[in-house]
Amino acid sequence: MNPVQELQAETRRHFFGRCGLGLGSVALASLLDSRRLAAAAQPLDPRATHHVPRARNVIYLFMAGGPSQLELFDYKPRLTALNGQPIPDSYLAGKRFAFMDSSFKNRSTLLGTRRQFRQHGDSGMWVSELMPHTASIVDDVTFIRSCATDVFNHAPAKLFMNTGSAQFGRPSLGSWVTYGIGSEAENLPGFVVLQSGPRGPRGGAVNWGSGFLPSTFQGVPLRSQGEPILNLATPERYGDARQRRVLDAVQDLNLRHLAETGDPEIATRIAAYEMAYRMQTAAPEAMDLGRESDATLRHYGIEKDRPSFARNCLLARRLVERGVRFVQLYHTNWDSHGGPGENLEDDFESVCRQVDQGGAALVKDLKSRGLLDETLVVWGGEFGRTPMGENREKTGRNHHIDAFTVWMAGGGVKAGHIVGETDELGFRSVRERVHVHDLHATLLHLLGLDHERLTFRFQGRDFRLTDVHGDVVKSLLV
Amino acid sequence: MFPVRCALLAATFGWWTVLPASDSLHWAFQPPVRGMPPRVRQAGWVRNPVDAFILHRLEEDSLSPSATANPATLIRRVALDLTGLPPTVEDLEAFLQDPRPDAYERAVDRMLASPHFGERWGRHWLDAARYADSNGYSIDAPRSLWPWRDWVVAALNRDQPYAEFLTDQLAGDLLENATREQQVATGFHRNTQINEEGGIDPEQFRIESVLDRVNTTGTVFLGLTVACAQCHDHKFDPLSQREYFQLYAFFNNQDEPSLEAASPEQFAARDAVGAMTRPLEGRLQARAAELAPGFESWESTLTPATRESLPLEVRNVLGLRPEHRTARQRETALQGYYATDDGYRRLRDQLRDARQSAPVIPTTLVLQERAEPRSSVVFIKGDFTRPGDPVQPGTPAVLPPLTADGDFAPNRLDLARWIADPEHPLTARVLVNRVWQQLFGRGLVETENDFGIQGAPPSHPELLDWLATEFSGTGSAATPTPGSLKRLIRLLVTSATYRQSSDVPDAATAPDPLNRLLGRQSRLRLEGEVIRDVALAASGQLDRRLGGPPVFPPQPDGVMAMGQSRREWKTSEGGDRFRRGLYTFRWRATPHPALTVFDGPDAFSACTRRLKSNTPLQSLTLLNDAAFLELAEGLAERVLREAPEATRLNAAFLWTLGRPPESAETARLQQLLDAERQAGDERMAWITVARVLLNLDETITRE
């Protein structure tokens, strides 16, 4: 025998040796086991919920950078009256986070908004002039004006808002949801991410990462222009029939190898290949707005061939219609320190224009199609902005973790409702404080999941999205 | 919040991880203690002390290690781990034909001696150093820092002791009589981004890069999240904001020039060309001086026909009135006139040819200490616009003191020597832990970038300390080569622990499903670069040349459009098209998608561990990406060219997976081949088989 033949014999001995018997029965049984494993590795199959769900899908409009609630939704005439005055000491007593240190205090003064606010709808929600479209849907929306988070830098705060932890390595909300209840979409990923604005969100892929959950549950970014996914199409000279034959052989050989090694990652890969193949037809169809009427495009404010948040909103509706469980839209840049490109004057106006119409149109469109009942729309950033001003080149506000506004619509959330209230300066909540963990617990609850029972064992501990915290905000449930 | 976190930590890891913060010093800040390898029951399994520690822990839980992996798996594993390339058929034969009992150790030694070792382990280092070939931020212009990358590969190949390796990189410019190589090494901290946007405050971004250097130094060498202390005292570790800025002060004092980086031969060649061109330049000038006075009469007597024969830009200038010509236009006109002289033209052409023969000397970014130190202050809330108290360079009080010469403030070199000190409690632990992570998939300290109080405690603390002392040479046994990475890697890959099979016994009932106790090896999905390298090697097209400027393998259209400034991607031809993934040009704003999709690092901050995700997008890349299809075609053509007809399936399988197929595998591939032959030509049939092989889970996995 030459060495390679010997190796062949050795490989076979190894295989037999481990099976203990001849190839026949044991290998076959093992192969059958593997088929079961691979079938079980359709991890995105819909799964039973803990209780009757109110929402089936989520569209999360993530306002990356931290929009100023004081320019949009949290109307504070008293703050305007005190414009330019130092913040009273009583607000800073006992505050531990660092940017409230003494030297900052000595220099920082209150900043009243220059924006006009008006009450809208039956709910009487105050909305500023910067969000005229959003103002028109207040009676379908619950505004939570008392949100709070723990961390005040962008990347960790985004991570916190998405994973319930400021540390890397935890699964994101969309991953938890698809892990918990799977997805109705057989031909598309269960968790899809779309992006708009000048750049991707800080932290990038960790925001939709699956952490210690299997990677099948991580968010898949889709491009709103051109080929939705790089390498989606099989080059023509290979043809569809051949592609299927390639895939079948890959799957058979992978299945066999799964039987030999027992590594569940191979089962995940088998599922990934099947999904990839189906996505080749399903994704272009989902991303093609050619069948949408001009009226619809106008409704959203979509300009032909131009990537935008509005386009992503319409795509989100189409993805949800096709069973995608969790669609997350990131829009940058809401950071408003007052420096170039991020002042509260013209830059802020421009970001508002970029998102206002699309977000409101999405809610109306879902409603008119009867989809709003089962689709939860969430709008919000990683934190809010301080009542104190920040003066760089122009005017801005610093990051603020104690009070900011998030709104939700549809999916079992009260229509025309307001949760929470902040003090007269908008510094912190005085009623119904809703921490990120509470927000997460509520979201899961609406989807039929008990945040205390949705766990994953890792490093000897059952992990939860909400860690050891979180209360469902009952007042906003229908 | 703190008590809650403490309770959580305690629940997760036991009280002892929480208590030392108050009662005594956290384990990682204490010097490693070298214990005796423990006694074990299955002593026959132990090949070296590593195994004693591992087996002892397994036996505590009444667990047994796995059987040794089969020889084909083992040799592919170690080849991929040490060189990032699959074993060649020659490697396989040399190993399998070697009857000596230490045949495996000899194979390991061959791989450690391979120049590809430096490429493989250099890439890990590049991840940590946040290496890229562009400046980042929104403009993302290209930069030349690859000579530093080549320095890393060479340093690892010659097994430069770790203390020197890190000292050269942190402070090579400050060494006495620093060599050119030592200056090139300082490129480590030139991997910071450079913001070239209009209207920025350059000082702001200089400071950003200094902060980045502090944070990267903390992560890479000390395994500490020092960045947390930029804006406030560290919430968990004993590191104050003031101490953060004492570290900052070390890095606040250098200029950031470029340096010519070439071999002595290249400089000599350039000097030789200079010796040739200088006399030519003199003669050319002399000839011009002779001709110059005749210019005006030449211009005044130009016929329309002669005028037409002149180059366009000369004609354009001559069309202007002489008093309206700029200096530059006058020079253009003069050059046009001189060129009508045969002698001048001959000299000019000679000079041009000589200059073209000069070697291109690349430059590389380096650090250079300033003569006049900058003063450093604490930035209140980490904000550079809010200077606070002044600080001097210094190291955190919780760690051993830095001793500098005399009365002078310590500088970067002192910091480097402080980190490199074999007695430093963190340096060796952090390094051996990362090496362990590369070879076993998970560090002994799982949080490889956080050895602080929030980090995970080591799964095998005694082993970690034993390895750290073994590596740094502070153990009781005299270490022949302190800081030798190759020696450390050899120790680990020749252990029985490393040689175990990676098969998962039964995922559902396994007592240690995540394999924290190392009762088996782990199957690890390969990195994006290595996935490409494996396909390149299988296709027979791999260009094994080391080093040089980055290259441009094929990538999908539209990738470059994603950045703010549209950059060019001119696909390389010839050998450069088939270089290892290490050499692919790295744009920060628009990274090559086949690297990103397999969890390649973003090069914005230190990456000390790559994720290993498993997604449909990876499947699409391997199935449809033009670069992989090209390699599948290469593999098919190699099969048709090199393998006799009867052995073709065997050969293709062996080249890709480093083992021959089992009979069922042969049967399945033969079935595909038959179907393909009916549908098309022989070449396409083999391309299809090749595509299948390059898509197999086993192909992209180190088993």
Write the layout of secondary structure elements.
The complex is a heterodimer of chains A (478) and B (703).
Chain A: H1 3-19, H2 23-40, E1 57-63, H3 77-81, H4 89-92, H5 102-107, E2 117-120, E3 125-128, H6 132-135, E4 141-148, H7 154-163, H8 173-181, E5 191-196, E6 220-221, H9 240-261, H10 264-287, H11 294-300, H12 309-321, E7 326-331, H13 346-368, E8 375-380, E9 384-391, E10 395-400, E11 404-409, E12 417-419, E13 421-422, E14 429-431, E15 434-435, H14 436-446, E16 455-458, E17 461-464
Parallel strand pairs in A: 1-7, 1-8, 4-12, 4-15, 5-6, 5-7
Antiparallel strand pairs in A: 2-3, 4-11, 8-11, 9-10, 13-14, 16-17
Chain B: H1 2-13, H2 20-23, H3 49-60, H4 71-83, H5 89-96, H6 103-113, H7 115-129, H8 146-157, H9 162-171, H10 180-185, H11 202-222, H12 241-250, E1 254-255, E2 258-260, H13 264-291, H14 295-300, H15 304-309, H16 312-318, H17 327-338, H18 342-356, E3 363-365, E4 368-369, E5 376-379, E6 387-391, H19 412-420, H20 427-440, H21 461-472, H22 485-493, H23 496-499, E7 524-525, H24 528-539, H25 593-596, H26 616-624, H27 626-642, H28 648-657, H29 663-679, H30 682-695, E8 701-702
Helix pairs in contact in B: 4-6, 4-7, 5-6, 7-8, 9-19, 13-18, 16-17, 20-21, 20-22, 24-27, 24-28, 27-28, 27-30, 29-30
Q: Main traits of this protein?
A:
heterodimer; A: 478 residues; alpha/beta; Alkaline Phosphatase, subunit A; two-stranded antiparallel sheet; B: 703 residues; mainly alpha; 30 helices; disordered N terminus
Structure description:
The complex is a heterodimer of chains A (478) and B (703). Chain A contains 14 helices and 17 strands. Chain A is an alpha/beta fold and 478 residues long. In chain A, strand 13 and strand 14 form a beta hairpin. The longest helix of chain A is centred in the middle third of the chain and has 24 residues, at 264-287. The model of chain A is unreliable at 8-26 and 96-106 (pLDDT under 50). Helix content of chain B is 48%, strand content 3%. Chain B is built from 30 helices and eight strands. In chain B, a hairpin with a 7-residue loop joins strand 5 and strand 6 (387-391). With 703 residues, chain B is mainly α. Among the domains of chain B are: 144-260 and 368-421, no CATH class; 264-361, no CATH class; 524-702, no CATH class. A two-stranded antiparallel sheet of chain B has the order 1-4. The chains are: A alpha/beta (478), B mainly alpha (703). Chains A and B meet through helix 1, helix 9 and helix 10 of A and helix 1, helix 5, helix 26, helix 29 and helix 30 of B.
